[in-house]
């Protein structure tokens, strides 16, 4: 288990008695104090982008859970973007491209294994020809093409498919890797549950809210709800190609040591316990696509709650105010089913919003309307 980071050890404060006593008040030449709430893929990547984009700041990541206990750790980690209803396709494509480029560089470096990022090739298959034969992300992934008749022979129930190479980003390795790099660049990491973002005033000058589903409470965003996902983590080292049914409901994603079999999308279901009947269904659907999986062993069930927001990712600055004092909060949450695929692109955008807050901290900005 992770040792709780105490303020007295990390910043030399007297005794731990809440945020108020931890830091001296902002002086004009002091670095800007930035708190990032959340340590899933969104929080850690945001902290990293802020550290690169915002000069002279001190960053603290505060979260009640860290890897391997976040939703991000359950993700299959495939870079295949999901459409968000209110996000224009060019914006979504930019987020995906920035994420792909960032991870591609890692996959091409000596860090690839530690970071859990690697290329993977395979097929996305359809039982009828999709409305969009060539998806908007086709020129971001590598070697995108329609499947040949010979390839389709492997899937007798399917009539059409895409073949391409994309990236797989395995959070149980990627999150600790990010955390290590953050610590190495002086970022403080604190295990703590936040009940209300205003708790962070006046200890911090800017707060970035990357609390995923926690934003239901922290941002009073009642539109946030879980989309439950159950997957199986199995050993089947002979499976080298990914296979994804076009609906996105059945998938086989080989990784560095295991293969992830999925899945489910259960809206509004908060149950984190695996359901044996669902597991049997996943296994039989995946075996129908890849019969050799009958020989898979070490089957482990995992459940995660996707942080879903009907309007899509919220990237927005809000100014909390009490008694004439105010606290800029950059909201960055609501990545639903596709957070791994776009995290670096949205983190860069969040870091730009933080940079605006730092440059013009006293400029009045209208309150957000959720
Ligand atoms: C089964 C499954 C498969 C998936 N597969 C893919 C995939 O292949 N590709 C893809 O792109 N995406 C995939 N996803 C989606 C992806 O996992 C999410 O979009 C992404 O992980 C969201 O990241 P996040 O950091 O916003 O949330 P989280 O990982 O949930 O992180 C939220 C953080 O906030 C902290 N927090 C919350 N409330 C508080 C509080 N009050 N105080 C302090 N800390 C708080 C939490 O402890 C946590 O650290 C999948 C998801 C599931 C469940």
UniProtKB/TrEMBL annotation:
The keyword Lipid biosynthesis does not apply. It is found in: Cytoplasm, Cytosol; Peroxisome matrix. Coiled coil: none annotated. Keywords: Cytoplasm, FAD, Flavoprotein, Oxidoreductase, Peroxisome. Its cofactor is FAD. This is D-aspartate oxidase. D-dopa binds at residues 251, 306. It is an enzyme of class 1 (oxidoreductase). Its EC number is 1.4.3.1. One of its GO terms (cellular component) is peroxisomal matrix. Residues 33-353 form the FAD dependent oxidoreductase domain. Gene3D superfamilies: D-Amino Acid Oxidase, subunit A, domain 2, NAD(P)-binding Rossmann-like Domain. InterPro entries: D-amino_acid_oxidase_CS, DAO, FAD-dep_OxRdtase. GO terms for biological process: D-amino acid catabolic process; grooming behavior; hormone metabolic process; insemination; L-aspartate catabolic process; nervous system process; regulation of cell communication. The keyword Transit peptide does not apply. It comes from Panthera leo. It catalyses: D-aspartate + O2 + H2O = oxaloacetate + H2O2 + NH4(+); D-glutamate + O2 + H2O = 2-oxoglutarate + H2O2 + NH4(+).
